Amino acid sequence: MSRLSDYDISALGNQIDFKKDLEFGQSGEVSIVEFAKLIGSGAVEVKTDRYKNGNMVIETHQSPGNKKDAEGNQIWVPSGLNVTKAVWWVYIFAVDESFVMFKVDRIKRYLRSLPNLYNENTKRVMAPNSENPALAYVVQKSETINMLSKKDYDLPNA
Questions:
Q1: Which residues in 96-114 are b (16+ Cβ under 10 Å) and which e?
Q2: Which of 10, 87, 119, 141 has the most CB atoms less than 10 A away?
């Protein structure tokens, strides 16, 4: 059987250190406990995917009342990721069944690190004919996995 990653136990050879592995696992448990404490404080923003396509929508602006200026241009105000005070961002892909969660700062690091994919010209207008259209990035499902797992988006000292 081939190795799946540099983090597989077989890749470590004889360097298995149970104490170190236990401490690493416990640090993950601490992260989840901290997350659970923040749920009640309002420090968690929750978004739900209604289209079931695996893509994640990250809103950055909205147009309350679908207002336009004198030239007919949409008037956008910061919203979503640009104004959230949340520490965690939870994206529900299937209600009662699956979700992912990110620290808000990780999402911001991810978006900033890929300016060719995520910039003012790549945002999409969501619900354009509603009373509250939004501008948002659409993160493809393969990119969601990258945002979750690539070291490029870890904190510098992580």
A1: eeeeebbbbebbbbbbeeb
A2: 87
* DSSP assignment of the chain: ----STTSHHHHTT---HHHHHHHHHHHHHHHHHHHHHHTTT-EEEEE-SS-SS-EEEEEEE-GGG-B-TTS-B--EE-GGGT---SEEEEEEETTTEEEEEEHHHHHHHHHH-TTTSSTTT-EEESTTSSS-EEEEEE-HHHHHHHHH-GGGS-TT-
Residue 35 CB contacts under 8 Å (≥ 6 apart), including other chains: 44, 88, 101
Q: Name the 3-class secondary structure at 112.
A: helix
Identity of residue 44? V
**What is the end-to-end Cα distance of the chain in Å, rounded?**
30
pTM above 0.85, yes or no: no
Q: What is the pLDDT of residues 43-72, one digit of tens each?
A: 888 888 888 888 999 999 999 999 999 999
